Amino acid sequence: MFDLHGKTVLISGASSGLGRHFANTLAARGAAIVAGARREARLQALVGEIQARGGEVLAVPLDVTRAASIEAALDAACAWRGVPQVLVNNAGVASTAPALETGEADWDRVLDTNLKGAWLLAQGYARHLVAAQQPGNIINVTSITAFRVAGGIAPYTASKAALGQLTRSLALEWARHGIRVNALAPGYVETEINTGYFDTEPGRAVVKRIPQRRIGTPQDLDGALLLLASDASAYMTGSSIVVDGGHLVSGL
Ligand SMILES: NC(=O)c1ccc[n+]([C@@H]2O[C@H](COP(=O)([O-])OP(=O)(O)OC[C@H]3O[C@@H](n4cnc5c(N)ncnc54)[C@H](OP(=O)(O)O)[C@@H]3O)[C@@H](O)[C@H]2O)c1
What does each C-alpha distance from 244 to 11, 76, 210, 220 come to in angstroms? Predict the structure, then answer.
């Protein structure tokens, strides 16, 4: 039911953290992977990992803040194996500063990557699907900060809440084209986006507020990822799946 043989999955932000893990997880289930990000040397390392296990993978340079780069990456993916069956909109960045001290450049960097980048990639992908008269599947990686807030990351929480709403808007509009759009909303998972934070006093305090008393591992997301990426979720669109050790239901 969760088999991905015969599917090609395009993943943005595949050079590290969750994106890299998603690429390996999906490849292990039979998907051919198109891995996009800016750091090409990191992508080549991922290509080596997947190929060493017999998987099929194409690395494409991708900067989601540049429309021309998105177009080129989509063209490369389509030229390789036709229009991908699945897009994982995973690229994301964060900035950390009190709202009063957050500059315009930080706001733009976070919103341009997490929201506008995801929008442009989803739209470009959907245009290819519609032109090819092919169904499709988009997974937007949001966050528990799409639902609740934390201090010092206002642009990030705004970007993720908006991406959650964009997920629902696109699900509504594109169901007629056979395109499903869902969100995967992780709680805290240790990656480069939060390196060192969970070794600090505030970071340890966060862990104490998670009902399961630990932060997540990338592997904790595998079940939800495979559900959303496969035909097992054929009747799901506009949904958000939260994977957070209960963090969203922590007591007030
Ligand atoms: N870790 C968590 O606790 C957590 C929780 C909830 C949600 N998330 C979300 O999960 C996603 C992955 O984050 P992560 O934790 O894996 O962090 P990460 O290790 O820092 O990975 C972020 C990825 O995004 C890519 N990226 C950033 N800007 C980009 C751009 N302009 N164009 C293309 N790719 C870009 C980076 O690649 P390059 O720098 O090579 O381009 C990198 O591969 C993000 O959307 C994040 O918000 C993470």
Answer: 22, 35, 8, 9
Calpha distance 104→70 (Å, rounded): 24
Tokens of 118: 């995801």
DSSP single-letter state for residue 112 = I
CA of 176 to the centre of ligand 1 (A): 30
Task: Fill in the DSSP letter of residue 129.
Answer: H
Residue 58: CB atoms within 10 Å:
19
Please report, to the nearest 10 degrees, the dihedral formed by the alpha carbons of residues 245, 152, 162, 136 taken in order: -50
Say which of 125, 156, 197, 235 is annotated catalytic: 156
Q: Quick check: CB of 179 below 6 Å from ligand 1?
A: no
Domains and CATH numbers, the chain: 8-243 (3.40.50.720)
**Burial 12-21, CB ≥16 within 10 A → b, else e:** bbbbbbbbbb
Chain segment 216-232, per-residue pLDDT in tens: 999 999 999 999 999 99
**Which pLDDT tens digit goes with each residue over 95-107?**
999 999 999 999 9
Question: Closest Cα partner for 141 from 3, 12, 2?
Answer: 12
**Cβ(159) – ligand 1 distance below 6 Å:** no
